[in-house]
Write a structure and sequence with these properties.
This protein is of the alpha/beta class and 293 residues long. It has helices at 14-23, 37-45, 69-78, 92-102, 114-131, 143-154, 206-213, 216-239, 256-270, 284-292, and strands spanning 2-8, 27-30, 53-57, 82-89, 134-137, 164-171, 182-185, 243-250, 274-279. The protein has two domains: 2-154, 3-Layer(aba) Sandwich (Rossmann fold), CATH 3.40.50.300; 164-292, no CATH class. Strands 2-3-1-4-5 form a five-stranded parallel sheet, with helices on both faces. It has a four-stranded parallel sheet with strand order 7-8-6-9. The longest helix has 24 residues, at 216-239.
Length: 293
């Protein structure tokens, strides 16, 4: 019997997780008071192995009852039941944005500022986060990417490093992504924009990709970038970093950065890294042109 405790910051994606875990065969219980975990475990043990994979979603919605979590988990261990803790996190500015978009108040600050509630919640959850077996930062994850991360961990059994690498392409003329840890400028590569047959295509098209990656400087850059990341990533993991955001930019974020980022994504993914890819500005030129008309 496997117990998975899903917890984390409000707004980090726990509700989405419930759906994904149900899809892969987990029996999910949302907002179960921690003090009831031992009794629930007894019921599961009496089910004659009808419930093998169980996910319990719990967070600060339970108020002071959430503090009963650790004693309850000790009881699970005494029953001989193994458990893991999955902690979902996100950057404060992302959490604020999500609360505002959904017009929800923070459960710890129903009449005050969302930031105050987030700060208080982080303080309460820090001991749980420190004991978590998996920490997923959802700041830059789409629902599809979060689902894939769960499938990688709990279905395919890929190794978990606690570090999610997000590769974001962008156009310098539209500004740098504010959350990048590392930024690389690939405007030194010859620009497909000036080739008539490639101008209207993107780095996702094979012709553009072949053109960009056909240059010695492109291949050399990729080789040195991968070497650097191979060196840095173990130290980021050791330091406890949950997410590494790599920005790759060209003039418009449509050709060179996309082709380079696609290749980097394939290389890192082949190393069993948790990697997600986003092309921020790939359609921006077209959208702005349409808006002008």
């Amino acid at each position: 019997m496997q117990f998975l405790i899903i917890t984390g910051m409000s707004g980090a994606g726990k509700s989405l997780c419930v759906k994904y875990f149900e899809d892969i065969g987990y029996f999910c219980v949302d907002n179960l008071p921690p003090s009831l975990i031992p009794k629930f475990a007894e019921i599961c043990l009496q089910s004659n192995n009808k419930m093998e994979k169980i996910a319990l979603i719990m967070d600060i919605r339970g108020g002071s009852m959430f503090l009963d979590l650790f004693p309850a988990l000790e009881t699970l261990a005494a029953y001989g039941i193994s458990y893991k803790i999955l902690f979902l996190d996100a950057q404060d500015n992302i959490l604020v944005k999500r609360f505002k978009e959904t017009r929800r108040m923070h459960p710890l600050s129903p009449e005050g500022r969302i930031n105050d509630g987030i700060a208080e919640e982080r303080k309460i959850l820090q001991p749980v986060k420190e004991k978590a077996h998996y920490i997923i930062d959802t700041s830059n994850l789409t629902p599809r990417q979060l689902k894939q991360e769960i499938l990688d961990l709990f279905v395919e059994g890929k190794p978990f490093t606690s570090l999610i690498i997000s590769i974001i392409t962008f156009g310098f003329k539209y500004g740098l992504p504010i959350d990048c840890d590392l930024v690389f400028d690939v405007r030194f590569i010859p620009n497909p924009y000036y080739i008539d047959s490639l101008k209207t295509l993107t780095g996702n098209d094979q012709d553009v990709s072949d053109y960009v990656l056909g240059f010695h400087e492109s291949r050399g850059f990729l080789s040195k970038l991968v070497d650097m990341l191979d060196y840095l990533i173990p130290y980021y993991v050791k330091e406890g970093k949950n997410q590494l955001v790599i920005g790759i930019g060209c003039t418009g974020g449509k050709h060179r950065s996309v082709a380079i980022a696609n290749k980097l994504f394939d290389i890192l993914k082949s190393k069993n890294s948790s990697v997600v890819l986003e092309h921020r500005d790939i359609e921006k030129d077209r959208r702005l042109k349409n808006e002008a008309f």
